[in-house]
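As a warm-up, study this chain.
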Amino acid sequence: MHNETHLIALIAVGFVLALGFGYVAMRLRLPPLVGYLLAGVTIGPFTPGFVADTGLAQQLAEIGVILLMFGVGLHFSILTLWEQRRIALPGAVVQIAVATAIGAFAAWTWGWPIEAGLVLGLALSVASTVVLLRALEQRNELNTDRGHIAVAWLIVEDLATVLALVFLPALAPGSGDDSLWEKTGVIALKVSIFLAVMLLGGRRVVPWVLAHVARAGSRELFTLTVLAIAMGIAYGSAMLFDVSFALGAFFAGVMLAESDLAHEAGEKSLPLQDAFAVLFFVSVGMLFDPTILTRDPLAVLAVLFVIVVGKSFAAFAIVLLFGHPPRTALTISASLAQIGEFSFILAGLGVGLGLMPEEGRDLILAGALMSITLNPFVFATIAPVERWLDRHPRLHRAITRRQPVRTAEAREIATMQDHVVVVGYGRVGSLIGRALTEQRIPFVVIERNSRVFDRHLFPAGIPAVAGDAAAEGVLASAGIERARMIVVASPDSFYVRRVLELALAARPGIRAIVRTHHAQERDRLLAAGATQAVMGEHELAIAMSRYSLQEWGVEPDLAHAATARLRTALGGRI
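Now compare it with the structure written out below.
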C-alpha cells in the first residue's frame, strides 16, 4: 500500500470496525466504548491481519484527547459541584487516595518503582465520564439526588486528572538534574502563568471572538471558530507554557463556557468530538497486547479487584458516613466501578514519560475492558443487595447513619390529620403543592434536596421534612400514619416502588398517586397497591389531543369524551 493511503486506511478501517463492534456491544447492552476498543485491538500490531499505522493512530488519538477534554471543559459545572461539595469533594479525594494507594501497593509487590505505582493507582481511581453518564441515563437516575452526587464526584475526579496531567512530568526521569521540588515549582509557575493568561484574557477574548463570528451568520465559520479555539489554545499552550494538549483544551472549553453561545458551540463541535473520540478509543485498543491476559492473569485480576471492589467499597463507606441511605451509596459505588478515557490518558502520559512500563498500560486497558463489560451487572446487584439489607434490619440500621430529621412547621405537622404527603418538590411536586394550597388541602412535603428545602420550603412556611422518604423514620416524621393520601412526584422508578412499599406498610389502604415513565412499570406499581400511576407521556398526548380537537372546532364536551376514550385505550382510569 502506498504511504499516501495509510491515513485513509486507518480512518476507514477504524470507523468500519468501530461501527461493527460498537453495534454488537450495544445489542449486548454494553457501552459502545467496549466495541471501539476491540476494533482497535483487531487492527493493532498484536493481532493477525491488517495492521494500521500506530504512529498516525497516536496523532489522531491526540486530536481525540483535545476534543474530549475541550468537551469536558465546555460542560464543566461549577454549580453542580458546589451543590454537592460537602460529599463530592472529600468523598472523591478520599476515594482517589484509597484506590491510588491500593494500586500503588499492588505495583510495589510486582517490583515496580514508586512512580509507576503512582501512575497505575491514579489511572485506576478515575471513572469514565462516558460510561457513568450513560449508565445513569439508562436508569433514569441522572436528575435524581444520587445522580447529582455521582456527577459532582466525577467532576472532582476530572479535576484530579487535570492536576495529574500538570505535575506528572515533574516525576519523569529525563526531566533534568533539578530536585523534584524545583521541577514541581517550575511547572507550577508555568501553569500559573497559563491560568492567569486564560482567566484574565481568555475569558474575555474567547467569548468576544465567538460572538463576532456568530453575527456573520455563517454556520461553517462558527463551527470552524469553535474548533480553532479548541485546537489553537491546546497547541499554543503546549508550545508557549509547556503544558499538555489536554490541559490547554480543557481550559479552552472552560473559557468558551463563559459565552452565551456555549450551548450552540457544544452542539456544533459534538459530531467531530464523537468521531475523534471513536478514533481515540480505537487507537488505545491498538496499543493493547491481549497476551497480558494469559501472561499475567493474577495481575489482571488484581487490577480488576482495585477497580470493581477496592474503590467501590471505599465510595460506599464514604457515602454512608455522610449520612446517605444505602441505596445512594450503592448507586455511587456502582457508578465508579469502571475506568475509561481519563485512565487511558494518564496511562499514555505515564508510558510516554517513562514513568510506567508498557505492561502497566496493558493492565489498565484490560481492567477497563473488563470493568466496563461488568458494570451493567454491578448495577444489577443494587436491588438484590438492598432487598437483602431489608431482610436484615439490624445490619441495615448498623450501616445507616441516621441524621436528625429537619422539619419546617413541625408543630403543624404533628397535629395534622387526613392530610396529603407530597414526596418531591421539583417541577412536578411544586405544581401539585400549588393546587393543594388553592383548594386549602393540608399537605406535608418530603424533599431530599436540602437546597430546595432551605430556599423554597422553609422560607415559605410550607410544612416539610428534609430527607429521603425511603429512609427510616422520614415518612413517620411527615405523619404518614395519619395521612389520607401520598403523592410521589419523583421519576425514579425504584425509589417510587420503595416509598410506596413503606407508605402502605405504615398506613394500609392509603391512597397513593405515583409517577412513572414506562407502561410496564405503571402496571407493576398498580399491582403493588398504587391508586393511580400517572405516565407523563400519556398525559401529554391526552392534553395535546384535547387542545388539537378544540382548536379544530370540536365542541368541548365531544373533545373531552374523545380524550376520555383515549385515556381508557391507554389503560388509564377516568
